[in-house]
């Protein structure tokens, strides 16, 4: 299998966590933002990453979107399972995954790129890195006002996740699910931001544990 990705994308990290948890051998190909469209649009009709190329007879040629990739992996290799056996619990896990994907992952992106353009610029001050950051900020309309809204969404997320993870090792049910993988991946960029790293140690402890369960190297800052 081949995973087309941006090396720093938290959505691509989500796909890698799923592959790692399933212990599926794969290779990754890092694409350049902007130029990646030439590679992925002919395959999926979309401009987004990650894209998984199963390269297996009888399987789809390409699967776009991290959620779709996890669903494919569950049907391709059922053990160890990512989907919960209880229908109500799996529905809840899928709803959490969707919320994390559509709201919290976006909020993380806004806060992270605002940080990287300002006090976190020294992480990689190279022209290429700063150009990519500038393009992303323009593409998504990242500014002080939108970042403040994103920070508020993150506070809500931390409250919900802390309640769930304090009463159980997992967000839903008694084993790892797509909800845990989504949270661990989509909040991982915040590890580089001191106010989050220091203010929410329980979150990053859980992110580390999930990465270890999934045999995935820890994200920067951890």
UniProtKB/TrEMBL annotation:
Pfam families: GST_N_3. Keywords: Transferase. InterPro entries: Glutathione-S-Trfase_C_sf, Glutathione_S-Trfase_N, Thioredoxin-like_sf. Signal peptide: none annotated. The keyword Transferase applies. SUPFAM superfamilies: GST C-terminal domain-like, Thioredoxin-like. Residues 3-80 form the GST N-terminal domain. It comes from the Bacteria. This is Glutathione S-transferase. It comes from Nodularia spumigena CENA596.
């Amino acid at each position: 299998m081949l995973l087309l990705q941006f090396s720093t994308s938290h959505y691509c990290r989500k796909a890698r966590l799923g592959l790692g948890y399933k212990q599926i051998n794969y290779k990754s190909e890092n694409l350049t933002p902007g130029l990646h469209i030439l590679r992925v649009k002919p395959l999926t009709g979309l401009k987004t990453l990650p894209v998984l190329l199963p390269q297996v007879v009888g399987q789809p040629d390409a699967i776009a979107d991290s959620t779709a990739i996890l669903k494919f992996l569950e049907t391709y290799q059922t053990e160890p399972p990512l989907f919960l056996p209880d229908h109500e619990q799996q529905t809840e896990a899928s709803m959490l995954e969707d919320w994390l994907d559509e709201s919290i992952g976006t909020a993380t992106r806004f806060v992270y790129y605002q940080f990287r353009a300002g006090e976190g610029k020294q992480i990689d001050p190279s022209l290429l890195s700063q150009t990519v950051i500038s393009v992303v900020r323009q593409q998504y309309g990242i500014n002080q006002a939108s970042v403040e809204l994103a920070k508020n969404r993150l506070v809500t997320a931390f409250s919900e996740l802390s309640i769930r993870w304090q009463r159980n090792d997992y967000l839903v049910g008694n084993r790892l699910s797509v909800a845990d993988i989504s949270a661990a991946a989509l909040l991982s960029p915040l590890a580089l931001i001191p106010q989050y790293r220091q203010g929410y140690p329980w979150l990053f402890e859980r992110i580390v544990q999930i990465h270890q369960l999934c045999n995935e190297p820890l994200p920067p800052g951890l």
